[in-house]
Fold this sequence. Notes:
Layout: H1 4-10, H2 12-18, E1 22-26, H3 30-41, E2 45-49, H4 74-85, E3 91-94, E4 110-113, H5 118-131, E5 135-141, E6 144-150, H6 165-168, H7 173-176, H8 180-199, E7 207-211, E8 216-220
Parallel strand pairs: 1-2, 1-4, 2-3, 4-5
Antiparallel strand pairs: 5-6, 6-7, 7-8
The structure holds zinc ion.
Zinc ion binds near residues 160 and 230.
Amino acid sequence: xxxxxxxxxxxxxxxxxxxxxxxxxxxxxxxxxxxxxxxxxxxxxxxxxxxxxxxxxxxxxxxxxxxxxxxxxxxxxxxxxxxxxxxxxxxxxxxxxxxxxxxxxxxxxxxxxxxxxxxxxxxxxxxxxxxxxxxxxxxxxxxxxxxxxxxxxxxxxxxxxxxxxxxxxxxxxxxxxxxxxxxxxxxxxxxxxxxxxxxxxxxxxxxxxxxxxxxxxxxxxxxxxxxxxxxxx
Length: 233
Ligand SMILES: [Zn+2]
Protein backbone atom coordinates (compact mmCIF):
# COMPACT_ATOMS: atom_id res chain seq x y z
CA UNK A 1 0.00 0.00 0.00
CA UNK A 2 1.31 3.44 -0.97
CA UNK A 3 0.45 5.98 1.74
CA UNK A 4 2.24 8.95 0.14
CA UNK A 5 -0.82 11.17 -0.31
CA UNK A 6 -1.86 10.71 3.34
CA UNK A 7 1.75 11.45 4.34
CA UNK A 8 1.47 14.86 2.67
CA UNK A 9 -1.22 15.66 5.25
CA UNK A 10 -0.14 13.89 8.43
CA UNK A 11 3.59 13.35 7.82
CA UNK A 12 5.62 10.16 7.27
CA UNK A 13 6.31 9.72 10.97
CA UNK A 14 2.62 9.60 11.90
CA UNK A 15 1.83 7.27 9.00
CA UNK A 16 4.61 4.94 10.25
CA UNK A 17 3.08 5.24 13.73
CA UNK A 18 -0.29 3.98 12.43
CA UNK A 19 1.39 0.76 11.24
CA UNK A 20 2.40 -0.02 14.83
CA UNK A 21 -1.12 0.49 16.24
CA UNK A 22 -4.08 -1.85 16.73
CA UNK A 23 -7.78 -1.00 16.90
CA UNK A 24 -10.34 -3.53 18.07
CA UNK A 25 -13.83 -3.52 16.62
CA UNK A 26 -16.85 -5.27 18.13
CA UNK A 27 -19.63 -5.74 15.58
CA UNK A 28 -19.01 -6.28 11.86
CA UNK A 29 -22.24 -5.06 10.30
CA UNK A 30 -22.36 -1.90 8.15
CA UNK A 31 -20.55 0.45 10.53
CA UNK A 32 -18.00 -2.03 11.88
CA UNK A 33 -16.89 -3.56 8.61
CA UNK A 34 -16.67 -0.15 6.91
CA UNK A 35 -14.64 1.37 9.75
CA UNK A 36 -12.44 -1.75 9.54
CA UNK A 37 -11.87 -1.24 5.83
CA UNK A 38 -10.96 2.45 6.29
CA UNK A 39 -8.49 1.57 9.05
CA UNK A 40 -6.89 -1.26 7.07
CA UNK A 41 -6.47 1.04 4.06
CA UNK A 42 -4.60 3.40 6.38
CA UNK A 43 -2.23 0.70 7.63
CA UNK A 44 -3.81 0.08 11.06
CA UNK A 45 -3.84 -3.47 12.51
CA UNK A 46 -7.15 -4.87 13.76
CA UNK A 47 -8.79 -7.22 16.23
CA UNK A 48 -12.35 -7.93 15.11
CA UNK A 49 -15.12 -9.70 17.02
CA UNK A 50 -18.55 -10.90 15.83
CA UNK A 51 -20.50 -14.13 16.23
CA UNK A 52 -23.07 -13.61 13.48
CA UNK A 53 -23.34 -14.36 9.77
CA UNK A 54 -23.20 -11.98 6.81
CA UNK A 55 -26.93 -11.30 6.23
CA UNK A 56 -28.36 -10.41 2.83
CA UNK A 57 -30.83 -7.98 4.44
CA UNK A 58 -27.88 -5.98 5.81
CA UNK A 59 -26.16 -5.83 2.41
CA UNK A 60 -27.35 -2.28 1.47
CA UNK A 61 -25.30 -1.02 4.43
CA UNK A 62 -22.16 -3.12 3.87
CA UNK A 63 -18.86 -2.41 2.28
CA UNK A 64 -16.02 -5.01 2.18
CA UNK A 65 -18.17 -8.16 1.94
CA UNK A 66 -19.14 -9.51 -1.48
CA UNK A 67 -22.17 -11.64 -2.52
CA UNK A 68 -20.18 -14.84 -2.00
CA UNK A 69 -19.81 -13.96 1.71
CA UNK A 70 -23.58 -14.06 2.36
CA UNK A 71 -24.54 -16.56 5.11
CA UNK A 72 -20.89 -17.18 6.05
CA UNK A 73 -19.46 -15.97 9.37
CA UNK A 74 -18.71 -12.24 9.51
CA UNK A 75 -15.49 -12.50 11.53
CA UNK A 76 -13.95 -15.00 9.10
CA UNK A 77 -15.10 -13.32 5.88
CA UNK A 78 -14.17 -9.83 7.09
CA UNK A 79 -10.63 -10.99 7.93
CA UNK A 80 -10.32 -12.59 4.48
CA UNK A 81 -11.52 -9.49 2.60
CA UNK A 82 -9.56 -7.03 4.76
CA UNK A 83 -6.33 -8.97 4.17
CA UNK A 84 -7.07 -9.03 0.44
CA UNK A 85 -7.40 -5.23 0.59
CA UNK A 86 -4.10 -4.70 2.44
CA UNK A 87 -1.84 -7.70 2.98
CA UNK A 88 0.56 -5.61 5.10
CA UNK A 89 -1.76 -5.33 8.10
CA UNK A 90 -2.46 -7.93 10.77
CA UNK A 91 -6.12 -8.79 11.29
CA UNK A 92 -6.97 -11.07 14.20
CA UNK A 93 -10.57 -12.27 14.10
CA UNK A 94 -12.72 -13.83 16.82
CA UNK A 95 -15.94 -15.67 16.00
CA UNK A 96 -17.37 -15.23 19.49
CA UNK A 97 -20.24 -13.59 21.33
CA UNK A 98 -18.80 -10.82 23.47
CA UNK A 99 -19.52 -11.14 27.21
CA UNK A 100 -17.92 -9.94 30.45
CA UNK A 101 -15.79 -13.09 30.39
CA UNK A 102 -14.11 -12.50 27.03
CA UNK A 103 -14.26 -8.68 26.76
CA UNK A 104 -10.46 -8.71 27.21
CA UNK A 105 -10.32 -9.73 23.52
CA UNK A 106 -10.85 -6.03 22.80
CA UNK A 107 -7.61 -4.96 24.50
CA UNK A 108 -5.96 -2.60 21.96
CA UNK A 109 -4.84 1.03 21.47
CA UNK A 110 -8.41 2.12 20.66
CA UNK A 111 -11.77 0.28 20.75
CA UNK A 112 -14.63 0.90 18.32
CA UNK A 113 -18.01 -0.34 19.57
CA UNK A 114 -20.19 -1.00 16.54
CA UNK A 115 -22.20 -3.75 18.24
CA UNK A 116 -25.57 -1.96 17.87
CA UNK A 117 -26.55 -3.80 21.07
CA UNK A 118 -26.77 -1.73 24.23
CA UNK A 119 -26.19 -4.65 26.59
CA UNK A 120 -22.88 -5.34 24.82
CA UNK A 121 -22.10 -1.61 24.71
CA UNK A 122 -22.33 -1.35 28.52
CA UNK A 123 -19.84 -4.22 28.92
CA UNK A 124 -17.45 -2.63 26.40
CA UNK A 125 -17.83 0.84 28.00
CA UNK A 126 -17.04 -0.55 31.44
CA UNK A 127 -13.99 -2.44 30.14
CA UNK A 128 -12.61 0.54 28.19
CA UNK A 129 -12.97 2.90 31.16
CA UNK A 130 -11.47 0.42 33.63
CA UNK A 131 -8.44 -0.15 31.34
CA UNK A 132 -8.17 3.50 30.28
CA UNK A 133 -8.52 2.57 26.59
CA UNK A 134 -10.05 5.29 24.35
CA UNK A 135 -13.50 4.14 23.18
CA UNK A 136 -15.44 5.21 20.12
CA UNK A 137 -19.11 4.26 20.28
CA UNK A 138 -20.85 4.23 16.89
CA UNK A 139 -24.44 3.26 16.07
CA UNK A 140 -27.33 3.98 13.73
CA UNK A 141 -31.05 3.21 13.63
CA UNK A 142 -33.67 4.77 11.39
CA UNK A 143 -32.55 8.24 10.29
CA UNK A 144 -30.13 8.77 13.14
CA UNK A 145 -26.52 7.84 13.76
CA UNK A 146 -24.20 8.63 16.66
CA UNK A 147 -20.48 8.72 17.24
CA UNK A 148 -19.33 9.27 20.83
CA UNK A 149 -15.66 9.56 21.79
CA UNK A 150 -14.98 8.46 25.37
CA UNK A 151 -11.39 9.30 26.26
CA UNK A 152 -10.79 10.23 29.87
CA UNK A 153 -7.12 11.02 29.12
CA UNK A 154 -8.26 13.90 26.91
CA UNK A 155 -11.46 14.81 28.71
CA UNK A 156 -11.92 13.86 32.38
CA UNK A 157 -15.45 15.32 32.48
CA UNK A 158 -16.66 13.72 29.23
CA UNK A 159 -19.77 11.55 29.18
CA UNK A 160 -19.48 7.79 28.70
CA UNK A 161 -21.87 5.46 26.86
CA UNK A 162 -23.82 4.72 30.06
CA UNK A 163 -24.22 8.42 30.93
CA UNK A 164 -25.99 8.87 27.57
CA UNK A 165 -28.06 5.68 27.59
CA UNK A 166 -31.34 7.56 26.98
CA UNK A 167 -29.90 9.39 23.98
CA UNK A 168 -27.87 6.55 22.44
CA UNK A 169 -30.20 3.57 23.00
CA UNK A 170 -32.37 4.35 20.00
CA UNK A 171 -34.67 1.48 19.05
CA UNK A 172 -34.29 -1.32 16.54
CA UNK A 173 -33.36 -1.51 12.86
CA UNK A 174 -36.04 -4.21 12.45
CA UNK A 175 -38.80 -1.70 13.32
CA UNK A 176 -37.29 1.66 12.40
CA UNK A 177 -35.20 0.67 9.36
CA UNK A 178 -31.73 1.83 8.40
CA UNK A 179 -30.02 3.70 5.58
CA UNK A 180 -26.67 2.72 4.04
CA UNK A 181 -25.19 6.22 3.67
CA UNK A 182 -25.90 6.92 7.38
CA UNK A 183 -24.01 3.76 8.35
CA UNK A 184 -21.13 4.75 6.09
CA UNK A 185 -20.99 8.33 7.40
CA UNK A 186 -20.97 7.02 10.96
CA UNK A 187 -18.24 4.50 10.05
CA UNK A 188 -16.08 7.17 8.40
CA UNK A 189 -16.42 9.49 11.41
CA UNK A 190 -15.64 6.64 13.82
CA UNK A 191 -12.56 5.55 11.83
CA UNK A 192 -11.47 9.18 11.64
CA UNK A 193 -11.81 9.58 15.42
CA UNK A 194 -9.74 6.40 15.89
CA UNK A 195 -6.96 7.56 13.54
CA UNK A 196 -6.86 11.01 15.17
CA UNK A 197 -6.56 9.40 18.57
CA UNK A 198 -3.78 7.04 17.40
CA UNK A 199 -1.63 9.86 16.04
CA UNK A 200 -2.37 12.32 18.83
CA UNK A 201 -4.81 14.78 17.24
CA UNK A 202 -7.40 15.79 19.82
CA UNK A 203 -11.02 14.80 19.21
CA UNK A 204 -12.68 18.06 20.20
CA UNK A 205 -16.18 16.95 19.35
CA UNK A 206 -17.47 14.45 21.89
CA UNK A 207 -20.84 13.48 20.48
CA UNK A 208 -21.76 13.65 16.80
CA UNK A 209 -25.38 13.16 15.74
CA UNK A 210 -25.69 12.22 12.07
CA UNK A 211 -28.70 12.33 9.75
CA UNK A 212 -27.71 11.43 6.18
CA UNK A 213 -31.16 12.13 4.70
CA UNK A 214 -30.86 15.71 6.01
CA UNK A 215 -27.10 15.83 5.18
CA UNK A 216 -26.52 16.85 8.78
CA UNK A 217 -23.74 16.27 11.33
CA UNK A 218 -24.33 18.05 14.65
CA UNK A 219 -21.75 18.40 17.46
CA UNK A 220 -22.85 18.22 21.07
CA UNK A 221 -20.83 18.67 24.21
CA UNK A 222 -21.93 16.10 26.75
CA UNK A 223 -20.86 15.86 30.37
CA UNK A 224 -20.32 12.89 32.64
CA UNK A 225 -23.24 12.15 34.99
CA UNK A 226 -22.33 12.81 38.61
CA UNK A 227 -23.70 9.39 39.52
CA UNK A 228 -21.72 7.56 36.81
CA UNK A 229 -19.92 4.50 38.16
CA UNK A 230 -18.88 2.95 34.85
CA UNK A 231 -15.34 1.55 34.82
CA UNK A 232 -15.23 1.27 38.60
CA UNK A 233 -16.67 -2.22 39.00
ZN1 LIG B 1 -20.73 7.54 32.48
